[in-house]
# Entry
Amino acid sequence: MLIRHPDEIAPSEITPRELYLDRRRFLALGAAGALLSADALAALTARKSVYSTAEKANSLKDITGYNNFYEFGTDKADPAAYAGAFRPRPWTVTVDGEVMRPRTFSLDELMKLAPLEERIYRLRCVEGWSMVIPWIGFPLSALLKQVQPTSRGKYVAFETVLRPSEMPGQRTRVLAWPYREGLRIDEAMHPLAILAVGLYGDVLPNQNGAPIRLVVPWKYGFKSIKSVVRIRLVETPPATSWNLAAPNEYGFYSNVNPAVDHPRWSQARERRIGEFFKRDTLPFNGYGSQVAQLYRGMDLKANF
Ligand SMILES: Nc1nc2c(c(=O)[nH]1)N[C@H]1C(S)=C(S)[C@@H](COP(=O)(O)O)O[C@H]1N2
Ligand SMILES: [Mo]
# Structure
């Protein structure tokens, strides 16, 4: 793919200084780095976004070392420990179902659909912890516009890759594989919903959903499905892995809501990883002024 030289980019678009340092480190890898260079360099020239929070981002160590990716095990340290053998390249994403133009996209094609942006988002896990993560990505709407959903395409269903040989968790029955998630079409078209291809100015680490994953910052973290290979437009709400596993605990919407407790614990507060004291959880994870209108007139206790 074409790589924009940093000199062609207006200073206002330029990434933070660390990204430049990172890029130099990356180039220093020379031939060893060349395998990854096309999409990695594109990621490193991402623009800043008006949608970013000004809160302090968590460390790369926390973001890559403490997380959930049940395909690699159920412990928070398992993804970092066991995702090393996963091969995220080459990669394609097939988009089909209720669309005018079904199509399979290569990773390079996906990364050229829209300018890559740095989006610093809060992520609130349903378990009660949160992080701030500097993603690199582009709006999911840019992909959906390419395939032209029909009037029957009212929901969007997502699937993670099924590859038990590289994903030890898929050799157990802890969830219904492949991992599945879903959004309503208006949620999927919202500018805050992105497909992320990197974080901290580099390509996505395997344990964070390489090479491409969804990020929906106003919903609990499990909606942000990792390592996506298939996106299907459908007429009715699609099945999701967590709803199948525990329908009384995980509904279709899963909007962050401090007023609706999980059946086994309160959702009123959260612990930001790296901090000691808990903080109040905000409705829609603090993105209410941007997304609350999507749910006007809905009973958010019934539609949890
Ligand atoms: N395929 C897949 N996607 C997944 C998960 C998973 O187990 N498998 N875990 C989810 C959960 S519970 C959270 S909190 C986020 C964590 O994302 P992060 O690793 O980028 O912090 O990924 C979500 N996406
Ligand atoms: Mo989570």
Remarks:
- The chain has two domains: 1-43, 48-295.
- Confidence is low (pLDDT under 50) at residues 1-36.
- The first strand starts at residue 47 and ends at 48.
- Residues 17-28 form the longest helix (12 residues).
